[in-house]
Amino acid sequence: MGRALIALLALSLLLWGGRGLDVRTFSSDFVQKVRNDQNRTIEYRGTVYFQAPNLTHWIYREPIEKEILFDGRRLIMVEPQLEQVTITSLKREENILALLQRAREVEPGIYHLELNGKEFQIETGKGGKIERILYRDDLGNDVEITFLNPKQNGELSPSLFQIEIPPSYDRIYEE
After folding, report:
1. Contact call for residues 143 and 33 (beta carbons, < 8 A)
2. Number of neighbouring beta carbons within 10 Å of residue 78
3. Global pTM?
4. Do 94 and 75 contact (CB within 8 A), yes or no?
5. Distance between CA 76 and CA 70 in Å, rounded?
6. How far is residue 116's CA from residue 3's CA, in Å, rounded to a whole number?
7. What average pLDDT does this structure show over 140-160?
8. Are 56 and 173 in contact (CB under 8 A)?
9. What is the Cα Rg of the chain in Å?
10. Which of 73, 127, 137, 138 is most open to solvent, judged by the fewest CB atoms within 10 Å of its CB?
11. Residues 6+ apart with CB under 8 A from 69
12. Pseudo-torsion of CA 3, 7, 9, 14, nearest 10°?
């Protein structure tokens, strides 16, 4: 599985609770900043939706369009500019809630979790809402995801966890 997909899987896993974090559903616009070792930054913007136990839908709008759906068994990444979809089967079903039981609160509103050899920091605000996630990716880039208008534990439509794949798109299957 590609590094980008592993990072997105890890982020999806991060947003599902752990001790002290009550997250059954989550939705928010986000800004994702990726800074390399030359201090160059690229900024992505989009919207994300989560629903326990395993549904995650990342919708990137800027600077490129991309959708990523995680359902616990597979990742589906749709890239309109490339007219392709990549479907990655996971070797085992991931239970996001079970993995996040390892998250530990290191100070009020700050949680740490080690996942796939990476240390993640999750910051929460009023009412325990997740506001920011920080980590270093496999390429040594510093990644910061800020949630602009987080909504936790509200109702989410099942249609938010569906992706339309145009029949003309190339399909790539990975295991």
Report:
1. yes
2. 21
3. 0.82
4. no
5. 7
6. 11
7. 93
8. no
9. 16
10. 127
11. 55, 56, 57, 58, 75, 76, 161, 162, 163
12. 160
Domains and CATH numbers, the chain: 3-174 (2.50.20.10)
Q: Is the pLDDT of residue 18 over 50?
A: no
DSSP helix/strand/coil, 52: coil
In 3-state terms the chain splits into helix, strand, coil percentages (rounded to 5) of 15, 50, 35
CB atoms within 10 A of CB 161: 17
Output the six-digit token pair for 84: 């392709």
Tokens coding 97: 């809630």
Return d(Cα 62, Cα 68) in angstroms, integer: 14
Is residue 68 within 8 Å of residue 53, measured between CB atoms? no
Instruction: List, for residues 44-74, the tens digit of each pLDDT value.
Output: 999 999 888 788 899 999 999 999 998 888 8
Q: How far is the C-alpha of 79 from the C-alpha of 84, rounded, in Å?
A: 6
